[in-house]
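Shift notes (night). Ran Phosphoesterase while the centrifuge was going.
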Amino acid sequence: MRIAVLADVHGNLPALEAVLDEVARVGVDRIVLLGDIANGPMPGQTLDRLAELGDTAVWVHGNGERELVAGFDGQAVPGPAGEEAAACAQLLEPRHRALLADLPMTVSLEVDGLGPVLFCHATPRRDDEFVLVDSPIQRWDEALAGVTEQIVVCGHTHMPFDRLVNQRRVINPGSVGMAYGPAGAYWALLDDHVQLRRTPYDPEAAAKRIARSRYPDAAGWAAEYVLHPYGDGAALEAFTAIAMKG
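Came back to this:
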């Protein structure tokens, strides 16, 4: 079993296409979609492309999927996430909602050479919990309480890492569509070992394509997250403040 892990695409279709092209070249048995797939400027096109993967794709829900389904159904979503959900909902069709509804929070797969691996978006207990690469061991132990798998793969914080937590290995593939740090689309390849990978793509061409979408201020989104992405230091500082609030 060889698995590609794609997290936090955030509706950035050009970045997704670049990663899928590379995934096709290296060859995999499964592609695990680790949540926050479509909440971004090209949500419908992103979901349509991923639907083409058929049974190769294994879907896990993140906070973005929960919020998009709520927005599509006309339910209130608090905070800035509600504005994004409402904007994306206008660009989705019922078939897209069907792809996002009732997805599992966690999936466990046997990976040759690694054994059983648990996949989740943020943590196994919450789809929006911030636990970071430098979070204390106690915080990680609390978030992973009851997990029997010795390897856990999670996303949500958009920064790749591979670390040990009390003899358990925790891996974050980084973000495909909204990377914090050096430019590119980040993902992970799992077989008998773990590769954290970065696929380059043309930010100028991607930004122009995103700007032509019907997402509100799509050009602004592309400028902020594709042309001038936040550094990992700034993101870590912001997320640490959120994590400290629980």
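The beta strands are 3-6, 30-33, 57-59, 106-111, 115-120, 151-153, 161-165, 168-172, 185-190, 194-199. The chain is about 35% helix and 20% strand.
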